[in-house]
Amino acid sequence: MIKKLILIRHGKAEPIGPGQSDFDRGLTGPGRAALSSVDGFMRSFYLLDAHSSSHATLWSSPAVRAMQTAEEVDRALGGWLTTVPVDSLWEQDEAAFADQPAQTDADCLIAVGHIPFMERMVERLTGVKLALKPGGMATVGLDADGRSGTLEWFVQGPEVED
Question: What pLDDT score was predicted for residue 106?
């Protein structure tokens, strides 16, 4: 059972283009650069202890912008993680997602998704209301039941030059 859950909002996404679906929107160039900068995920994951970072599992919404954000998470953590697409993160299905962490034996689960879902999950688990900017993350230390926990740290997403 996981002990730590890190919920991350995807980075700054491009607007929907003509004939493009929301699912297919990618990160903007500046948005991706901000995540990979020293003020992005490198700064954020500096807060993660060595055990958690070396015993982590990475899940992502299958949407393009979330998968691209997960690539930046993986890069910041050393490039050894495999991203697992999880439909409940795209569908923003709180009930389904709440049951899924028990299916992994990782000590630390990192999940990349969308708002308002990620903000709602932080509040559901901790009782704390947060407003996550693109690339923002909240770490929850989960209780034994895996259905509640304590907000351990929160890092707002990096500033993005437009």
Answer: 86
